[in-house]
From TrEMBL:
Residues 1-56 form the 4Fe-4S Mo/W bis-MGD-type domain. It comes from Roseovarius mucosus. Its EC number is 1.7.99.4. Keywords: 4Fe-4S, Iron, Iron-sulfur, Metal-binding, Molybdenum, Nitrate assimilation, Oxidoreductase. This is Nitrate reductase.
Amino acid sequence: MSMRTTCPYCGVGCGLLVSPDGQGGATVKGDPDHPANFGRLCSKGTALGETLGLTDRILSPQIGGKPADWETTLDLVASRFQAAIRDHGPDSVAFYLSGQMLTEDYYAANKLIKGYIGTANVDTNSRLCMASSVAGHKRAFGSDTVPGTYEDLDTADLVVLVGSNLAWCHPVLYQRLVAAKKARGTRIVVVDPRRTATCDSADLHLSLTPGSDAALFNAALVALADRGAVDRSYVAQHVSGFDAALAAARASDPGLTGLAPGDLAQFLDWFTTTDRVVTVYSQGINQSSSGTDKVNAILNCHLATGRIGRPGMGPFSVTGQPNAMGGREVGGLANMLACHLDLENPQHRAAVQGFWASPAMPDQPGLKAVEMFEAVATGRIKALWIIHTNPAVSMPDADAVAAAIKGCDFVVVSDITRTDTTRLADVVLPATAWGEKSGTVTNSDRTISRQRPFLPAPGQARDDWRMIADVAARMGWADAFGWTSAAEVFAEHAALSGIAGHLGRDFDISGLAQADYDALPPTRWPVTAQQQGGRFFGQGGFFTPDGRARMLPISPRLPVAQTARRYPFRLNTGRIRDQWHTMTRTALAPRLTQHIAEPFLEIHPQDAARLGLAPATLARVTSPQGAAILRVAITDRVQPGQVFAPIHWTGDTAPMGRVDALIAPVTDPVSGQPESKAAVVAIAPLAPA
Ligand code: SF4
């Protein structure tokens, strides 16, 4: 007997059919009826059944590294948070969450810290992933709305992939795109400094200067205007800011891209003459000190042409994590309110506070991820709760972040396995894992899918929403957190979204408030009497005060850190095909580690020869922030002067392979997203070759 659930890895959100064997194992297949994957799976999803079991699981609460009972542990957590709030105010505490959390868990955490503790110091590792897309959407659309759907990739004539190694990072979406190319000849352009696996299917690869994407899309906007491809009627009715955006684009230098004139001309020719264009963008755009501007440079082109929210056309931000979108929907970021309502808007704050009947509501944004750990380091944050993420490895300047966590007065970590971060915690809470917990996730095209349990919770592990409610009850708010199931949390979230809908916001799933939660099929939002799923903005209807989208004038900015004699190489970072984040689950499947077994550094043959680096030897990589030792992989997939290293290895799996220790805590001024793809480093052989 198989059951339907959803993959816990990337933002594609593939549906699964799981058949438990009754002994703690299960076979996993793709769900042929799920609209994200129609039965397809990638290597990670296929190996999910091999990752079950209790290796390294945390099975009981721990205080100071020793097992403790739940009552004592929860009392301690509540009392330490209460003490910090009493002595130093609500802004002395913080939650750091994760796109791995289910929507119900995220909702509970956001309600506790914003509505009851009364601080907006809640942020998430999604800040490292897609915050620039959120900020760009809000600037252009007045809301964090993904206009299109996955079907648009099936029906586009031209797909431009910008800063997105779709083949490795969103493999099933890539499979859909390749199938469309075979079936109908879809043209594919890849914009990426590195020649990734995705380029294998590209008709054109634009290996541009790192960070110059905004210059490319400014050039595209100028070409659209000069070649008569602007949809004057759409702009006149639905868009503001066209003239200023075009003037800024004309002032920007396409030479910044470093592209060969013929390649640039070919791209502009296709981009201006094809109506059904989808521009997919991901971390190569977002993880930048000018990420929000890059997003808006892309959105400008689609708004100018009206190629948005119609079949086969639109800008499309793909999310890294399985529930990055759900976190956005519940407002689990420092500058957001629940249900896409705005923290700065008094009417929105009053609506949420009224719905929650809560004693408090912050009126200012809280600390974003990098700021939060800086505040931990300086002692401003006295109590910190980290849920399902490993910032001691994955934050920029990871060594400094680990030291900050170690020095914090009181740190709680909820997780499923021991990590570099749980080892620094005062209290560790054992959480249920994928296959054990019940809830929902939202994928990159707004489809809400159920994760369903098929295994019992091991040891004393508990669901996250329940742990949060248990602590809230001890802090005096038992009534507001009195849920008895994830279904009740979801129903409350859906009901609150109806209020957001009445206030004119995009996120409204009030039609699901009474739904049969257990049987809930994959459902794209919004779900209201007026609209079920579909696309946004094809006929205008933006969520700005005047209902018009905003085009923004964009002046391209290159990465903050510039290479120089001491640090002459530009370091790009990213994922590999068969590992996920810090490998908590994927490392349990031996066949996944066979693809690439250890951290590596891709370097161009000319640079390797100059530095005396032989293939497969070790290189010492240093930046102003830290050092790493990586296996040398000599390849012309990277340009001279540029290197690439993957992000997955931790203190457990490769103590000197922690690449985020090299990344500077430099952020985009609008989105707060770190510049994780543009460090400057020096490289030397670990031992002479
Ligand atoms: Fe899971 Fe993403 Fe692979 Fe789908 S593409 S099976 S969601 S990792």
